[in-house]
Automatic annotation (TrEMBL), chain A:
One GO molecular-function entry: transmembrane transporter activity
Subcellular location: Cell membrane
Domain ABC3 transporter permease C-terminal residue range list: 282-390
Protein name, as recorded: Putative ABC transport system permease protein
Entry similarity comment: Belongs to the ABC-4 integral membrane protein family.
Domain MacB-like periplasmic core: 22-245
Automatic annotation (TrEMBL), chain B:
Gene3D superfamilies in UniProt: P-loop containing nucleotide triphosphate hydrolases
Source organism of this protein record: Allofournierella massiliensis
GO cellular component, one term: plasma membrane
Domain ABC transporter: 5-224
Keyword Transmembrane helix in annotation: no
PANTHER family on file: ABC TRANSPORTER ABCH.1 (PTHR24220:SF86), IMPORT ATP-BINDING PROTEIN (PTHR24220)
Protein's UniProt name: Putative ABC transport system ATP-binding protein
Entry superkingdom: Bacteria
InterPro entries linked to this entry: AAA+_ATPase, ABC_transporter-like_ATP-bd, ABC_transporter-like_CS, ABC_transpr_LolD-like, MacB-like_ATP-bd, P-loop_NTPase
Molecular function GO labels: ATP binding; ATP hydrolysis activity; transmembrane transporter activity
Keywords, sorted A to Z: ATP-binding, Nucleotide-binding, Transport
Length: 401, 224
């Protein structure tokens, strides 16, 4: 039989049994929708992980508390901290570093305009803007003088400027209050759109290191972090070793810190995103497989129901291949319907998920993969029942009641 | 006149548990083109088995069978399918129309299976249905028709491929007497037009419609 005629018959059959086709394809619908959603969620997470570190060059080195070493006590008040003096030693002993800075984050009540809110305030040493490749939308960087004489000045992130003062230009020169002290905004950072470099600069309030100390804004337990840039990516390894040895020499608690580079951080973040993707995709595959088994079951029942029909077709001269192909095409058409409806469902699902604020990146590849798998599943699971049907003997099939 | 069908010394047995039952014994039958034959037998006489062998759907243990010049027992499954499609028009007791397709699609089926396109098959099917007086029922589904109409659709389907032989298995068995008589009259008419017909039945009245009656008793086929 011509394939076009066979397709016509399959279509007639499907239209005569809309309900059954729809019910059978439910598993495929769910499976397809799951793949689309899951790839969107997985890709979204991966994109976000990458965006977070985008612009952070791989030559960046971090010195952070090693939290794995801190299992027993989270009391950091008696921990030996990184200091500007230590930072100077690290720099002096390390020709492989181009710039280095300390950051000390704390949360404080900040009054901006008429509103008062708890925000993150960060004390920084002079080279922080080089290390983090910061650009200014208004005003400029702190001066040597600001650092040396602990001036009451601040640099704020673009989003904070917009939210509390209207715009970057308007924020420049305005005052804000942290605790008892008033600070003048001398610079506003360019907005970067998303939290990048592992640090949320858009919502940051930066103060000179000494100013922060002077005003006693940071608590006993605050742990300053050191961030440095190597002169080149090739120098990262040796720069890290030198930092470690300097710390070992000057600090008793050096082992409680971890020296790591941006590359490994990016890798870790993307790796965990990838792991999540794989997990989600395997869930989708399981759903699809279950859907396929559903198709197989229904086709087996269908073939029992249609044994006589198969017998008649064989008596009229249908070859085994024709019967096989007919049932295979019926299975694939169920996959097709399921795939299409699955995409409709996934569109609805994506629309709903947007309200949760989850990062989503629906992709054409995800949609294509889902569709291809819907078809493949239905073909694979449809094959055995179809083959069974084609093997029926015309005599047995005709006399089947 | 030439022989359409020649069965020679057909033996067929089935094993029923431990027993071996001889269903057909040395059955020989020659049918010439244009004949109308009835094979009369009670149930259990081997009727269905003989019908299946003549219909190229079953093989014998011994013997030979030639249909319109083809040595049937030497053919493979694919070739048998093609042979059934080209040489035999089946008419079943319960019509065996396909419920999900309309009347026209049912009648086109043998031609579609032969590889015809929809466009090629449709006019022939319409012609065949019109000859059966069903030209106005093309888009009906089988279950919208009466038993007699359904059997006429089945006959149209059997005839559409211009087979060498019409093979009818209790064609009136599911019909009331009057409709049954109409179908038999139709058979006689088709026979007068030159169609070769073999019908298998248990009913002497039905069998009498044919020009030659053969009796099948306990697997033995005789003229009396």
């Amino acid at each position: 039989m011509r394939i076009s005629e066979l397709l016509r018959l399959v279509r007639t059959n499907a239209l005569q049994n809309k309900g059954r086709v729809l019910l059978t394809s439910l598993g495929i619908i769910v499976g397809t929708a799951t793949i689309v959603l899951v790839t969107a969620i997985g890709q979204g997470a991966k994109d976000e992980a990458e965006a977070q570190y985008s612009g952070m060059s791989a030559d960046t080195i971090f010195v952070n508390l090693d939290y794995q070493q801190m299992q027993d006590s989270f009391d950091t008040s008696r921990l030996e901290k990184l200091t500007p003096q230590l930072m100077e030693s690290i720099r002096e002993e390390n020709p492989a570093l181009s710039s280095v800075c300390l950051r000390n984050e704390t949360s404080a009540k900040v009054q901006l305009g008429r509103t008062e809110e708890y925000l993150t305030v960060t004390g920084v040493t002079s080279e922080y803007s080089q290390v983090f490749l910061l650009e200014f939308a208004a005003g400029g960087d702190f001066t040597e003088e600001d650092f040396d004489s602990s001036r009451r000045v601040a640099i704020i992130g673009g989003r904070i400027a917009e939210k509390y003062f209207g715009s970057a230009a308007e924020a420049d020169g305005r005052k804000l209050r942290i605790g008892e002290n008033w600070f003048t905004v001398v610079g506003v950072l360019q907005q970067s759109g998303d939290g990048l470099k592992g640090v949320d600069n858009d919502n940051a309030i930066y103060l000179p290191w000494n100013t922060m100390e002077d005003c006693k804004l940071s608590g006993e337990g605050a742990v300053p972090q050191l961030t440095a840039k190597a002169t080149s990516i090739r120098q990262v390894e040796s720069a890290m070793k030198r930092i470690q040895s300097t710390m070992n020499y000057y600090m008793n608690d050096a082992h409680k810190y971890k020296v790591e580079n941006a590359g490994s951080r990016i890798e870790a973040a993307t790796r965990s995103a990838r792991t999540m993707s794989m997990l989600l995709i395997s869930v989708a595959m399981i759903v699809l497989t279950v859907g396929g088994i559903g198709i197989m079951n229904v086709l087996f029942v269908t073939i029992k129901d249609r044994t006589r029909e198969i017998g008649v077709l064989k008596a009229l001269g249908a070859r085994a291949e024709t019967i096989l192909l007919q049932f295979l095409l019926e299975s694939v058409s169920i996959g097709l319907v399921g795939g299409l409806l699955g995409h409709v469902c996934s569109a609805a699902g994506l629309w709903v998920l947007r309200f949760t604020g989850m990062p989503l990146a629906p992709s054409v590849q995800g949609a294509v993969v889902a569709f291809v798998f819907a078809i493949l599943t239905s073909a694979a699971f449809g094959f055995y029942p179809a083959w069974k049907a084609s093997c029926l003997k015309p005599v047995d099939a005709l006399s089947y009641e | 006149m030439s022989d359409i069908l020649r069965l020679q010394d057909i033996d067929k047995s089935y094993s029923m548990g431990e027993e071996r039952v001889q269903v057909l014994k040395q059955v020989s039958l020659t049918v010439q083109a244009g004949e109308f034959i009835s094979i009369l037998g009670i149930s259990g006489s081997g009727k269905s088995t003989l019908m299946n062998i003549i219909g190229c759907m079953d093989t014998a243990d011994r013997g030979s069978y030639s249909l319109d010049g083809e040595d049937v027992f030497r053919l493979e499954a694919r070739q048998l399918a093609a042979l059934r499609n080209r040489k035999i028009g089946f008419i079943f007791q319960r019509y065996h129309l396909l419920a999900q397709y309309d009347v026209l699609q049912n009648v086109m089926m043998p031609l579609l299976l032969r590889g015809f396109s929809h466009q090629q098959a449709a006019p022939l099917a319409v012609e065949s249905l019109t000859a059966m007086g069903l030209g106005d029922r093309l888009r009906h589904r089988p279950n919208q028709l009466s038993g007699g109409q359904q059997q006429r659709v089945a006959i149209a389907r059997a005839l559409v491929g211009k087979p060498a032989l019409l093979l009818a298995d209790e064609p009136t068995g599911a019909l009331d007497t009057r409709t049954g008589r109409e179908i038999l009259e139709l058979f006689r008419q088709l026979n007068r037009q030159g169609h070769t017909i073999i019908q298998i039945t248990h009913d002497l009245t039905v069998a009498s419609a044919a020009s030659r009656i053969l009796h099948l008793r306990d697997g033995v086929l005789t003229d009396q």
